[in-house]
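Lab notebook page, bench 4
Experiment: in silico fold of construct C2
Operator: M.H.
Input chain length: 512 residues
Purpose: comparison with the prior construct
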Amino acid sequence: MTGNVLLMLPEILLGAGAVLLLLWDLRLPAEKKGLLCWGAVAVAAAALAATWAPDIARTLSASPADAASVFAHESFAVDGLSVFLKRLFAITAILVFITAKDSVDAFPNARGEWWTLGVIALLGMFLCSGANDFMTLFVSLETVTVAFFALAAFRRDKPASVEAGLKLLVMGSLSAALLLYGIALIYGSTGTVFFSEIAGKIAPRALPDGTLVVPAIPAEMVVGAALVVLGLGFKTSAVPLHVWVPDVYQGAPTPTTAYLSVGSKLAGFVLLIRVVAMFGASPELGAQIAAFMSVIAGVTLLYGNLGALPQTNLKRLMGYSSIAQCGYLMAGIAASWEAGMSSALFYMASYVGMNLAAFAVIMSVSRATGSHEIDDYSGLARRSPMLGMALTLALLSLAGVPPFMGFFGKFFLLGAAYGRPELFWLFLIGIACVVVALYYYLSIVRRIWSEEPRIRTEIRAPRRVTLTLAAVSVVLIGGAILPNLVQAPATAAVKQMGVFPGKPPVPPRALR
């Protein structure tokens, strides 16, 4: 039992850290609430360091059949995928907390709770990364969702923020209903909620005489799987549960938008990878879900990129950009093979850097101008060369311009679709959308460098923000020069899942 507890050391640290932050907030005077930021950073850093704990390292060094180790009756997996995503989530939280400090400090009231809710959201993301049954999936996903409900409506003095929280609540309730209904149908078809057991029931199996038996997939199982994918589509910003994204991105406090745009999306995608891997144990169901997801990916790509074209508010444009990036990720996962999933993990890692760099600049500029209109970024390179360069690198990487990490991410994802003849149409849509994205991203870059600023006042960002932006910029360029530094761990993480499309399921070993 001791080994089991130590395998969940990162989650224990986050839970304890959230409680301590809440208690510390009660003792701190108003003028010292900013210290809670560094407390949240310390908690996230401790959770990050705990992912290298000896028990976890021994588990990851085991054979693939043993690497998908689980806790509490196979409900929580500690494998390469979960550890890869936990590290990514922790880095995301640290970057958000550091760059958001000044914006949160400027809130008129209740500043301390923002950091506690941020750590609770991070705890939910960690639980999502290892969810190995539908009950754990739902509880962990709702932990993330409820925390972001509160964070989106955090500025109660601003109607737009309250509206953002309500829209997130309504759409989140709808997606939860779809998800639960899908889970109920799958449970009715298989009699279990554990991923490994479901995969074992639907996978082809050989009889002693060598005959291969392929279980029939009932219609309710197919419908349930489709509803689960749709329910998770809310977190990933996929069409048709995407309608909340532009309004929430624009109305929510910018630090919340930055955190939501990366953390919540990646939490949805890690769960999507696990359930698609489980469905892929059945060639029939795997092919049907892959076709379903490819249609969603194509529509999401078109909607996100075309919707971004007329936008004049940068936060709203980033919302449509988020929808478009979801389309690329779903295209890779829909390819339903190792290369597609490992490419999705690579792109998630690059997405953290380029999206958070963009939002760090947005926070700095909005504090100086009080606006998020794209026109206010005209001449930004003259008002702050560092911010102008960082935003340019982030936008070029989001657009998929070589030699940045975003280019290699899109290259790997679309390459996975290109490798499947039946998905060649999706590859063509992806290429067309890259061209569309170049237009609206480069139009902002043109304003940054070519146009005269509307106000010539210099914009000064805190030193910690400029250092963070410099580090992220180096990673975006360095990751492009040596993409294998990220791609190799991503591939290893997928191989250690135990179950994924194209290979027979390997039941995880239950730790006692």
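Observations: The first strand starts at residue 69 and ends at 71. The chain has one domain: 2-207+214-495.
Next step: discuss at group meeting.
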